Amino acid sequence: MSSRLDANLVPDSNSESSGERHVPNESELMSSQRLETYVSLAEAERQRVQSVFGNVTVDTEDCRLGRGDDAAEFVVVDGERPGLALLLGFEHFSFEERRPGVVKDLTNMYELFHTHLGFEVQTKKDLTVAECMEWFKTVTSDTALLQRVSCVVMVISSHGSEDEVAKGEISRPELRRQEVKYYQHRIATTDGSIRTGEIISMFDDMNCRALKGKPKIFFIQACRGRTNESQNVLDFVDRGVQISVESEPSSTLHPSTQFSRSSYNNPVMQCGLDETDSVPDAKAIRAKDIRSGHKIFVESSERLRASMEEEIVLAPPPCIHNSVIVMASPPGKVAWSEVQDGGWLIMGLYKVLMQYVDNRHKIRLIPAITRINHLIALTMQTVTNDPSLNFMKCMPVMSHTLERDIVFVPRNIQ
């Protein structure tokens, strides 16, 4: 199984001298000088996540696979039919704020997909546009690799934005009308940005025939805001709504956790920036003087230009055939990420799927994503020094064109 935790794309990308670009590789994780064992690291991480989410549990349901029926109803990912996970994270940028939580994102996803789900894993960090495109081309042209896997999962963690497309660049006449504003999502790299649709299209049936008929799954932790210097952050955050929810007994909170009771009687994670070490998001959405036990920042991009003056706004997700795309926030909304613990979407993905693993349950992907949305919507919000930025929410959005649901079989029940 060809899994690795770091990239060797450029000569110094995993060198100690390169410092900021380095992510520990698997041999380093096993080194007694760095930490006792990878297992102890994984256990420590699970305990840390438990401390973040407190005693909030996620109800899971096992998936029964009947003999001969699973092929017709599900795409099964297990030891005989492993998946491929492509993990891409960005911490340092030429024109954006640093995102230190990406190291936690990559580590958690490596543990989840490789250690517990048995995926083959490739992980890259802090690539340029050219390096990203070269990696995607290498993967999509590796016929031997793609023929032996049952699906591909890509997790991307970075800054992002929805940028308006110039009228002259739009091919469809109905989208060139004056009253229409058409946006496309972009993901920031160390030296620029890549259109998200361009990344996803490289894995479609036409451009990657080895994956024809196989599911492609994308989790994208990046902002979808669109703004400029003159606009207010409040136009691009999710205020949430008040609902009445009866607390479950399993949701009883330990006094040492970072949760408190919300106005609708539900445990809510308190997230914010340390006031002595504020991390601004972009030039237009600066969250100054925000404090709490956790540092947090908006996953936004420096180059956000749209003015929101037109009557019709379109921002379709770049969904290809037989794919699932999960974005960290709705169109036009910012996404949140903690400095220490990483992005909310990836935190929820790790928490929910690890609950399936702990319960020794097979994972049906679509119901699991619904549980991720439920966890994030009802247990996470910002708490800041700025009253206008208190209690902000963030709801992931899924679009899919799957022909069959996907079932991940954890290693502990294979």
From TrEMBL:
SUPFAM superfamilies: Caspase-like (SSF52129). It comes from Magallana hongkongensis (Hong Kong oyster). This is Caspase 3. Residues 81-227 form the Caspase family p20 domain. One of its GO terms (biological process) is apoptotic process. Residues 324-410 form the Caspase family p10 domain. InterPro entries: Caspase-like_dom_sf, Caspase_cys_AS, Pept_C14, Pept_C14_caspase, Pept_C14_p10, Pept_C14_p20, Pept_C14A. Coiled coil: none annotated. Residues 1-29 are annotated as: Disordered. Residues 1-17 have a biased composition (Polar residues). Keywords: Apoptosis, Hydrolase, Protease. It comes from the Eukaryota. The lineage of its organism: Eukaryota, Metazoa, Spiralia, Lophotrochozoa, Mollusca. Pfam families: Peptidase_C14 (PF00656). Belongs to the peptidase C14A family. GO terms for molecular function: cysteine-type endopeptidase activity. The keyword Disulfide bond does not apply.
